[in-house]
Amino acid sequence: MTQRTLVLLKPDAVRRGLVGEIVGRIERKAGWRITALELRTLDRATLEQHYAEHVGRPFYEPLVEFMQSGPIVALVAEGERVIEGIRTLAGPTDPIAAAPGSIRGDFGTITRENLIHASDSEESAERELKLFFPGIA
Fold first, then answer.
1. Is residue 50 among the annotated active site residues?
2. 13 pLDDT exceeds 90?
3. Within a domain: residue 136?
4. Stated pTM of the model
């Protein structure tokens, strides 16, 4: 089943020069394609909407601050089981638990700065795509 998902390459990925490597891994997966890509700096209002479910949790403020600390790359990926697939490609948020070959397993350093966000379900993808790419969603 063809799906569409949001991927965010976080400020640490941009700062460390990993955008090409991560985008390349997505592009090399047979049947997946990138249909939109944009470098942008996120404002607090967008981040508050994106992370609304985490308000009040101890990591919320540090996460919002981190996501505002530099530019990010937002992209739309499409393909067969792309939601599940990109989350597998990303690996768990803890880089020590992430398998070698995954983005976080190969490049992750700390849990809070974990390089990449990928929608976790079709519902999340739909909501997140409307927020980041309203003209596409």
1. no
2. yes
3. no
4. 0.95
